[in-house]
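In the design runs reported in the main text, the only information available to the sequence generator was the tokenized backbone. The following block is the verbatim input for one such run; it is reproduced so that readers can re-run the procedure and compare outputs position by position.
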């Protein structure tokens, strides 16, 4: 892959470009001097990424605090308050400059402000580039429910400049790799090896990033509204979101990548119990997930169940998740049985 590429992503109501290249070259195609431009950042992307943008006309920058607890209604309200009573109408363009937190939140804030403003995602984390900006899911956490409030909305474009990754901490690169490993587990064994063997902290990134984007797109385009096949992408997120929600409720939030690293390990164990045999060929992925993250935490099973039952993926009060019979063989909407969940949790 040259560090300048583009592919078309099937959205809900439109097709949009996912582009990799120099950020100013890419953005110049969408910006005009007479537009009302709003750039949503967090404190880190304001410091490390915004200075790389060359925007030769006045615009509004809205800075939010960083940290998972700020993917909240309060943050949305803060954005809307900055715009209210000003010139910002439905023709305003939002640029969401940040990781998955800012693209989820900024996408949601834009898509409901005055019944919907266009927005461009500019991912600045690996996780944002390979996962959060593809598929049209926007939203915020609410009452400790992960992504409890949100809406499907297509960006106008996704513009990813790999040089943004240069200022990430190693843990933030590691978090992005988790979702890429998940893409490999549900779709391609080869991709797992590519992710594990590639230095994803520094450009050039190679085709491995586009491979992950393509895998996510493969599932999303066949099921935009998440009614079936797309749910395979939730592998690791039944346990993962419950653990993430638990720590959010305890006012001790953890990163999404870390929660999903634990969730994947637990759901591989659940898959083994379900099929009465270990998924073959997962050793390297498990080794990465175990050695790269702290051990899976212990807290009361009742707490885990409380948060699992609150998951928006459930239906008819059943806990529905994904199991793997083998790599690239993911099965969605499988009922997770409480007794089996308890066994996995107690064996941790
Ligand atoms: N919409 C989706 O389909 C989807 C998919 C996966 C994850 N998500 C969401 O994505 C979020 C996690 O995203 P994330 O892992 O990117 O976390 P994040 O956005 O919180 O970023 C992680 C940290 O990196 C900092 N940061 C971002 N870019 C930086 C840069 N270039 N240099 C230095 N620091 C930088 C941020 O300020 C933050 O402290 C979660 O809220 C999760 O629910 C959404
Ligand atoms: Zn995720």
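Verbatim output:
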């Amino acid at each position: 892959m040259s560090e300048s590429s583009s592919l078309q992503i099937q959205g809900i109501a439109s097709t949009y470009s996912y582009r990799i290249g120099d950020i100013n070259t890419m953005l110049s195609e969408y910006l005009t001097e007479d537009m009302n431009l709003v750039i949503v950042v967090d404190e880190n992307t304001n410091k490390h990424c915004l200075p790389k943008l060359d925007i030769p006309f006045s615009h509004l920058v809205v800075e939010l605090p960083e940290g998972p607890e700020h993917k909240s209604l309060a943050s949305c309200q803060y954005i809307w308050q900055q715009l209210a009573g000003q010139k910002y109408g439905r023709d305003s363009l939002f640029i969401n400059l940040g990781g998955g937190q800012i693209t989820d939140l900024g996408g949601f804030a834009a898509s409901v402000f005055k019944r919907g403003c266009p927005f461009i995602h500019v991912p600045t984390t690996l996780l944002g580039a390979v996962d959060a900006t593809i598929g049209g899911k926007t939203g915020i956490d609410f009452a400790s429910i992960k992504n409890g409030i949100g809406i499907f909305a297509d960006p106008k474009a996704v513009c990813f400049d790999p040089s943004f990754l240069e200022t990430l901490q190693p843990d933030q690169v590691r978090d992005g790799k988790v979702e890429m490993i998940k893409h490999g587990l549900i779709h391609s064994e080869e991709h797992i090896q590519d992710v594990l063997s590639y230095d994803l902290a520094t450009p050039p990134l190679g085709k491995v990033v586009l491979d992950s984007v393509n895998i996510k797109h493969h599932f999303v385009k066949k099921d935009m509204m998440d009614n079936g096949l797309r749910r395979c992408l939730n592998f690791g997120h039944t346990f993962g979101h419950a653990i993430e929600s638990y720590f959010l409720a305890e006012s001790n939030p953890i990163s999404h990548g870390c929660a999903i690293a634990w969730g994947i390990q637990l759901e591989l164990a659940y898959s083994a119990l379900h099929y009465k045999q270990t998924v073959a060929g997962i050793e390297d992925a498990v080794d990465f997930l175990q050695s790269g993250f702290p051990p899976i935490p212990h807290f009361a099973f009742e707490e885990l169940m409380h948060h699992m039952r609150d998951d928006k993926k459930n239906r008819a009060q059943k806990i529905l998740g994904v199991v793997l019979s083998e790599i690239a063989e993911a099965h969605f909407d499988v009922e997770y049985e409480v007794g089996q969940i308890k066994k996995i949790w107690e064996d941790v």
